[in-house]
Amino acid sequence: MKRPTLRVLEYRHSKTHPWYLDLRPFNRGRKFFKTKAEADAERLRQITTLARHGREAVGLPPGELSAIIHARKELAKHGKTIDDAAAFYLDYLERIRRCSVTVSQLAAEVLDAKRKDGMSTTYIDDLKKRLARFCSDFGERKIAGITVEELDNWLRALPGSPKSRANYRANVGVLFSYAERRRMIDSNPILHTAR
User: Fold this and answer.
1) Each residue of 63-118: pLDDT tens digit?
2) Which of 7, 97, 176, 194 has the greatest number of beta carbons closer than 10 A?
3) Distance of alpha carbon 152 from alpha carbon 178, whole angstroms
4) Domain 99-192 carries which CATH code?
5) Where are the domains of the chain?
């Protein structure tokens, strides 16, 4: 198989950008330039990128390539690779995709379950009030996508006394415990929030 090359070619269909660097052999399309000198400079940059980072890096914008290199260095500090990070994030996205239940839908389900369990009216009313407050901020979000950090920030932003925040934490915890028992989430994030 012939090895792909980077070529600067003339483009006759544009008066403003008559030169282009053909990146199609690398599945990156074409880049257009006002002058041949600009196109040649970009060709040299791409040749350097190819030599340093391989075929996959050709055509990547410098900022994206820089971000990849930075991410690799930061992950290496923790003994991890970009593949590890991608696998972790893809798993997270897959869990969210599988569980399409929103916070509002789950809150309604939890309240219905508690009524059927014979819980007191006072308990149900308090749970309903506090879950309504939580739903006003997170209602349309998928339950599997709520993070510990978001919960911590939400609890700290609530007005009122520490006791009031503790009550919200407990009631929102009921929601996440229910989701965990139903295998909608792997673990209850409320357990990792500040008390």
Assistant:
1) 887 898 899 899 999 999 999 999 998 987 887 777 789 999 999 999 999 999 99
2) 176
3) 19
4) 1.10.150.130
5) 7-60, 99-192
